[in-house]
Amino acid sequence: MNSMRRPLIAGNWKMNFGGPEAITLAGGIAKASKELSAVDVVVCPPFTALAAVAAELDGTRVGLGAQNVHPKASGAFTGEVASAMLVAAGCTWVIVGHSERRQFFGDTDAFVADKTSAAFAAHLAPIVCVGETEAEREAGNTLAIIERQLNAVLPVLVAHKGEAMAIAYEPVWAIGTGKAATAADAEEAHAFIRKLLASASEDLAARVRVLYGGSVTGANARELLACPNVDGALVGGASLTLEKFEPILGAAQALTLS
Length: 258
Ligand code: PGA
Prior knowledge:
Layout: E1 8-12, H1 20-33, E2 40-44, H2 50-57, E3 62-66, H3 83-88, E4 93-96, H4 99-104, H5 109-121, E5 125-130, H6 134-138, H7 142-159, E6 166-169, H8 183-200, H9 202-207, E7 209-213, H10 221-225, E8 232-235, H11 242-257
Bound molecules: 2-phosphoglycolic acid.
């Protein structure tokens, strides 16, 4: 972490808790976050729970994000949700380009860039995800993949460089596997992302929070967050219970005070 950037911890609930359980968990996280004045906290429930969780989080320190958005504002796109609809449901954040979208739903680099534009157009802060697969890492292509994915969206980020946004580096092989990147590997990727951002805009690079995602737990959060270019975490599995999420929030808070 770097004292210029407030840590951001975002919980990606994926396809879990679409109803009352979401409200209970969000309420618990809001309570646990009350005193964590140094940390920004965001939860990203499924679409069906967004409005109810927004009501639960009203007046708390916890922000609300969606997990996906369609680039178009409206129209014949059965099953899709537009950025203004997410705002109407109470969101201020949205995850775009998650590797599960890229892998299972065909999201291309160009589509991710369009989604990012749509997010900014509605004043939603995008969390743009990038990261290599295991095969890509083994072939020595990690940085090339990150560069390709980031370059596709970089002009959009630069055009909105004063607005809220984050990037998440999520190596695909680390997601849901219990095998997080080492702090050294995470820092290498994050420093590379920072360098690419700086080549387009120094201001943007200095300001944007680059989150690490992939098997973050209470046990490894402190070491990962201590890396100078790691500004927070995008947490999947460990964001689904308060018992597992709270220590990650605590690690971020403790680091800002140390
Ligand atoms: P994980 O997921 O923490 O369960 O590895 C992270 C993510 O996919 O955002």
